[in-house]
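Internal tracking record. Fields below are filled automatically when a chain is submitted to the structure queue. Please do not edit lines marked as system-generated. If the sequence contains nonstandard residues, flag them in the REMARKS field before resubmitting.
Queue: standard
Priority: normal
Entity type: single polypeptide chain
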Amino acid sequence: MISFLPFLLLFIFAILAWRNVETGILLVCALLPSYLIRLNIGGVPTTFLEIMVLIVIAVWVIRRFPFRDVRTDQIRPFLFPIALLLLATTIGIFISPDKFAAFGVWKAFFIEPILLFVVIQDTIKKSSSLQGNIFKAFGLSALLVSVFGLIQYIFVVGIPAPWDLERRITSIFEYPNALALFLGPIIVISWFEIMKATKSTKVFWVLVSTLAMVNVFLAQSEAGIAALMITAACALLLSKSTRYKTIITILLLTTLLFTIPTSREYLIEKLTFADFSEQVRLSQWRETTELLKDHPVFGAGLSGYPILMKQYHQELAYEIFQYPHNIFLNIWVELGLLGLIAFGYFVFGIWKLVWNTKNKFSHPSLSHSFTLSLFPLLFLQIFIHGLVDVPYFKNDLALMVWILIACAISSRTVQISKTSSLS
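SYSTEM-GENERATED OUTPUT FOLLOWS
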């Protein structure tokens, strides 16, 4: 009976998505961690999340065929980098020493997220409330995950080894940093939602923000904590009303922390990469650099890094990880230089679009525009965390990134319509 339950739920999901594709999109957003539910269909391994995404894509294709009224004007500037990215990922399959694993990464981390991105882009044009509802779905997911994490910490139950020795919570995930990587972007969203929320929704977002931040601290994710702190500081520095107070606060806190011997030693250890976790990272990066010297153009191919790394691995005290734990090296070893160029092109394009829209469609009533202030800081948080971790190459994170990209690109239309209505 239990083995049939996921398929029964997927059948119900398919009915809901067929009735309204928006419902399917929102359920996918709310159930991103469902990739942890592994399925096997006809001998092919998959996940609950992947089947949901494929159902949403299939429903959209059937309903929109033959695509006569599907507009691509918003995503047209990004078609070239997307094409480069798809080319790089396809080459990555052939370069990889493990073709089967590479194909799985190709479809789950790139093809399906990009197709869902197209679906959301098209759907969001017809529904002005979809973007806000996507954020609420993310918030609900973060809330449920955070509650489970608190139960895990309070009752010291369900924490997998070796994290149980340090009481580092993982919630429903397999390791602590996975929890921080998932919650980090949603926490940034919650900050902005709190500022614009009505009384009825403010409680929800305050709860999401508080519990999620507590979870990141209880997961003891130093990179996650640092990314959130830096992002919050940047947000305050960008606002004229809080800029000088923030500078003074940063100076006072820095002085205080370096005055106290315990905190001073801790900060120096972290900043000089002297502790164990930083030494592991440095070892990874040195060995990855050696690998890239021999494979500079194509890298190791999709899922090829841990296989090729065996011949470069000298620090036997440290294990070989799936990825180098640096956003640049992660992309380079997986997708080669072409993938690195495609990602850089894409990030620059989004940043330029959001920034130009903010300047072009400025309005007194929109001087603190929620939508256009959010995305630069949101992607900044992901980037900072990604300097020492893997913020993309994971089922839930890959989908989240492309969903956020869809929302960022669509923010231009949202801003234009708001400006027109206020003019």
